[in-house]
Design goal:
Blueprint: H1 5-14, E1 19-28, E2 35-40, E3 46-47, E4 49-52, H2 59-71, E5 73-84, E6 90-92, E7 98-113, E8 122-128, H3 130-135, H4 140-150
Parallel strand pairs: 1-7
Antiparallel strand pairs: 1-4, 2-3, 2-8, 5-7, 6-7
Length: 170
């Protein structure tokens, strides 16, 4: 994802050091319950739709904006599926920038627009079934996001807590 002005200003101060960012991921399904995925121009891997939340932007607004920017589709977020982060969501980009993401995973409904890859981040868009998604080359965290999206959770998913106080006190 291209850096925002906010991230550019941070990078000017700290170089490639770790930045923690909040992000959104948008799971858009068609009428056949196939998931929209995009082919990443830089990695050649299939990815989900989403990106960083801008300063003072709500997660839902970021989901709508990111989906429109990457796909040309206008969506309405309908359900919070998960909140995820941790070591699996730390990325080192090709230029050396390190980012640790905490992402809110939304399911969304298409309300307008025409699906078309933006050409900057995504070079192709495709709706896939769960079986097709499993066969696509994806990053580790993308596979987790897709698995959660196809799962039927009655409430938002999050990884169970594993931290305990240093002295073992519960």
């Amino acid at each position: 994802m291209p850096p925002s002005d906010y991230v550019r200003r941070l990078r000017a101060q700290i170089g490639h050091e770790l930045i923690m960012l909040q992000a959104v991921t948008v799971m858009v399904f068609d009428d056949e319950r196939r998931l929209l995925v995009a082919l990443d121009r830089h990695s050649g891997l299939w990815m989900t739709i989403g990106g960083a939340i801008e300063p003072d932007e709500t997660p839902a607004d970021a989901a709508v904006r990111e989906c429109w920017e990457e796909t040309g589709l206008i969506i309405t977020p309908t359900k919070l599926l998960a909140v995820l982060g941790g070591p699996k969501y730390r990325i080192t980009y090709n230029n050396g920038d390190v980012v640790s993401y905490t992402t809110a995973l939304f399911e969304a409904q298409i309300v307008g627009g025409v699906a078309q890859a933006d050409g900057e981040e995504a070079v192709a868009l495709r709706f896939v079934s769960q079986a097709e998604a499993i066969e696509l080359p994806m990053g580790e965290w993308t596979k987790e996001l897709v698995s959660i999206a196809f799962g039927q959770h009655d409430k938002p998913y999050f990884a169970p807590a594993s931290w305990t106080p240093p002295d073992g006190t519960l």
